[in-house]
Amino acid sequence: MGASSDPTQDGSDEQQKRSEIYTYEAPWHIYAMNWSVRRDKNEFCGPLTSFDWNEAEPKRIGTSSIDTTCTIWDIEREAVDTQLIAHDKEVYDIAWGGVGVFASVSADGSVRVFDLRDKEHSTIIYESSEPDTPLVRLGWNKQDPRYMATIIMDSAKVVVLDIRFPTLPVVELQRHQASVNAIAWAPHSSCHICTAGDDSQALIWDLSSMGQPRKLLLSYGADDDDDDDDDGEEEDDEEEEEVWYDIAYLSTPNVIKEY
């Protein structure tokens, strides 16, 4: 070990800066990273895992972190509006459901809903059936905020929830052959959701009849040249709007146009 340098040498009055390296072993492949600075304490907080923009109040975004917190930022003031200790373990995703309502999922296996009007309490909507099984992604239906969907780590199914009936899934989507890694509700429809998995498949579901068997509208394989319509039904004659999907596969973005 070498001797540490004198911070006052060469006439410098600056205090020697401290350098520390923290290692976090993520339980899945890391696709992105970011910095976060806590200006109130003038130090770095835990790495961020996800963020979501509040469409109802565009000046706000929410971020989640491995330090168990969710942070709400005011973009116009460039400041933290509030920071909540959201879970007992790392928070992996966050999603807005309204002006002051958001939800998060965590390594503690729970989906929790927060209302900024009552920052001291949260509501547990769902917990993994197996103890200590993390939930890694969350999607809140923007057209019908009664519904949200979440992904269980290393699971090939997607759990769809109705916040009016906590703890029990309203439906489980199971057609992937490997772990699901992404979900996205359609911005134009309240009953369509897209799921993507490690099986190189993106599936588009019709959930218009929650009490009936799930209808798979489209299956897109990242390795295939053509899309597959698993329903085998003829399309309606009435004119429908064009729908676009953006799916990332390895280093290539794929833009899909549905008629």
TrEMBL record:
Positions of WD repeats: 173-215
Taxonomic superkingdom: Eukaryota
InterPro entries per record: DCAF7-like, WD40/YVTN_repeat-like_dom_sf, WD40_repeat_CS, WD40_repeat_dom_sf, WD40_rpt
Keyword annotations: Repeat, WD repeat
Pfam families in UniProt: WD40
Region annotation (Disordered) ranges: 219-243
Keyword Repeat: yes
Protein name (Swiss-Prot/TrEMBL): Uncharacterized protein
Biological source species: Cannabis sativa
Start-end of Acidic residues biased regions: 222-243
